[in-house]
Amino acid sequence: MAERNDLEAAAAAGVITTEQVAPLHDFLAARRSAAPAAAPAAEGEETLRFIRNFHDVFLAIGIAILAIGVLALIFSILSEGGGAPGASTLIVGAVAFAIAAGGMWGLGEFFARRRRLFLPAIAICCSFALFCGIAAGMLVGGGVGMDGPMRLGGETWPMRLALFAFTAGAGGGALLFYTRYHLPFAIGLAGGVGVWCLLSLVFLTVPGATGDLLLWIWLFGGVGLFVAGVWFDARDPERKTRYSDNGFWLHLAAAPLILTGVLGLISAMFTPGRALTPGSSWELIARAAQSDQAAVPQAIATLLVVAALGFVSLLINRRALIVSALITTGIAIGVLMEAMNLGGGALLAGTLIALGGLVLILGAGWGSARRALLARVKPDGMWARVFPPETVTE
């Protein structure tokens, strides 16, 4: 929009005549006032700011392909082996460190700090954290004599130490990335990897207790991330700043951990004596198609947990928690329909219809449900920052 002084400068330069300044200014002002105003963004909505256009997707794909190619190079070096015990491991660690500190950090400076491209920055952050983890794991493992790739089931002390170093390096790399570039995704990644770092620390120090503590670590780690997300949300109840983005990614990382921990404990409750191992809750729920008497009550308990999570989501105005629960909810609905002796096609159709209907009902009535729940919450004060009131008219 040209201002009056711009038009007068154009007249002085001979681009237009002096007599044309006033009519042209009035014409442009009239067009500006007649143009439809842009719809204001609804307060409290979870706006996705990490993608702008397909160019960002294109760059992110390129970064991912580059990282995969470098990983293939690293593991080809590791597979050759040879030399003193741990020599190839140390070489791989040094190469991974050079890639993280040089290549990925340099890409971060260009795409994350200079150009502020969030989706490519997410791909760079994941790659940087991964190479930091590989560097830490291989250098520490090679230093204590580990030779060969890390195995998650490795029972030797060097393997367990290398696994702990890997998770600590990856989590520290994500946190360093956030400190430098303030990328909200990085703090969610750091939080999620931090829970696995705690688990690997237990595996390092008391490996025999890992199975007993696994689900509790997931549960309380997820609750810790959830609390951190609420803390960031309380600093930005209108969901307009980076604090809200930090809370979004922390909630997204927290929900799967909370669900897996709770559902695993439910599975253990309905199947006493079963060892708590990763994925046990999913395995037990998936077995419901068989003649398992505990399947139906376990599915009902699962739906109750998901309903409680949905209630909390409404209170804090975070749909990210619900998204993480969709798969679990679908499995539980399928279990209940299987108990009704539905055929395979009817079972699939019924599950999808029920799940889709629940999502549509919750999405369409989100604002109304929040206004009903928060009717007694004052529009200001501490509780209003934790449970932001619904003010947008649907």
Instruction: Give the topology string: H per helix, E per strand.
Output: HHHHHHHHHHHHHHHH
Strands, total number: 0
Helix content: over 70%
Beta-strand content estimate = under 5%
Radius of gyration: 27 Å
- Could you tell me the mean pLDDT? 77
Cα distance spanning the termini:
33 Å
Largest sheet: none
The number of helical runs is 16
What does this structure look like?
By secondary structure, this protein is an all-alpha fold. Helices cover 73% and strands 0% of the residues. It contains 16 helices and no strands. It starts with a helix and ends in an 8-residue tail after the last helix. Mean pLDDT is 77; it is low at 34-41, 149-154 and 275-291.
Summarize the topology.
Layout: H1 4-12, H2 18-34, H3 54-80, H4 87-114, H5 118-143, H6 157-181, H7 184-205, H8 210-234, H9 242-270, H10 280-286, H11 295-316, H12 320-324, H13 326-338, H14 344-364, H15 366-373, H16 382-386
Helix pairs in contact: 1-2, 3-4, 3-5, 4-5, 5-6, 6-7, 7-8, 7-9, 8-9, 9-10, 9-11, 11-13, 13-14
